[in-house]
Amino acid sequence: MNGRRGPAYWLLAGFFALFVLFLYGPTLTILVLSFQGPQGGLTFPMNGVSVHWFKNLFEKQMVGDFAGSLQRSMILGVAVMLVTVAASFSAGLAFRSRFKGAAFIFYLAVASLIVPSILISLGIGLLFRVLGWDAAWFSSAFGAHLTWTLPFGLLIMFAVFNRFDRRYEEAARDLGATSWQTIRFIVIPILLPSLIGVGLFGFTLSYDEFARSLYTSGTFNTLPLEIYGMTTNVTTPVLYALGTVTTGVSFLVIALALVSFTWVRRRRQRHGSDAGKAA
Fold this sequence. Notes:
Layout: H1 7-33, H2 52-57, H3 60-63, H4 66-94, H5 102-110, H6 117-131, H7 140-162, H8 167-174, H9 179-207, H10 211-214, H11 223-233, H12 238-278
Helix pairs in contact: 1-12, 4-7, 4-9, 4-11, 6-7, 7-9, 8-9, 9-12
């Protein structure tokens, strides 16, 4: 090999560069324009530099209930995350043993991935109306979001459990551990990185979900619905300030997940080192 890079390399490099440009270019543009001065507009050139629009963002009478919608989306995202992790982990344990109807239950659980999200939202909203219940972000929207997050959690946990070495459990039981102790002290610590990943999926999918919230959130908007409403009646850089804040929240969640992964890895390394010294 002479070390020269062929056309395929440059083609892939160019494609990746375009991908990065389309992915982060709009985000950087919104970030810059969100720091416009009080007289700034929606396009370049910028008219001053300030944090005026970030302050204006939290004024309910000016741009809507951003603080409330953010709080609702955060609470809903955390609730969906916890249920998704618990249900996916439990289902992963259950599906390790064959039982009658397992295939039917599996396909029934993941079927919502192929049904248009707007139809699921509309169907749940109509169901609540027929039953005489009021749709709300903490009830109907909660269920609608689970139809989106649970299939992903199930698929991840099934893949993880297929690679799980059950000899760890057998060794724990040989040493006298109960089934609950085996799950608590053996299975969960080993699968903790995967559980964190499922939780990250559950939170972000719920936090960003628009279509399944459209007919199920009731009279109080979640954050994606609030953003959509702002795009129709807000013509100031406050909209860009909102984009910057929500992007920051998303990156914060990712950072917390990475910190958790790092903590788990170092904890395992420390315990492994302690076990080696004891041996």
